[in-house]
Amino acid sequence: MANAAPATWLARVRVMLKPVINDPQGKAIENGLVSLGFAGVRQVRAGKYLEIQIHAADAAEAQRQADDMCRKLLANPVTEDYTFEVERLAAAAGNRSSPTEPGEKSAV
Predict the structure, then answer these.
(1) What domains are there in the chain, each with its CATH number?
(2) Is the pTM above the cut of 0.90?
(3) Does position 108 have pLDDT exceeding 50, yes or no?
């Protein structure tokens, strides 16, 4: 049986400083929010969010590639933790709003 053609997968990657690492950017955002009148703000942690389209034969391969990207470049294992999720995009690859499964809702 011939292998299926590669599909396009969307990896959503989140990289955050480890909890024991001071977060000066988060603290600056926190202070700014408080100074703008958001008195309920107690803590802000800043991080990175990336969306990466990957061509792979199946979900396992797309997940392996996303994990390799995180370990080799996207996250510093000494200071950062990462999580990711992978979902197959519909045939209209490149259309950000067309995953085959329901995605996260965006704020307007």
Answers:
(1) 7-88 (3.30.1280.10)
(2) no
(3) no
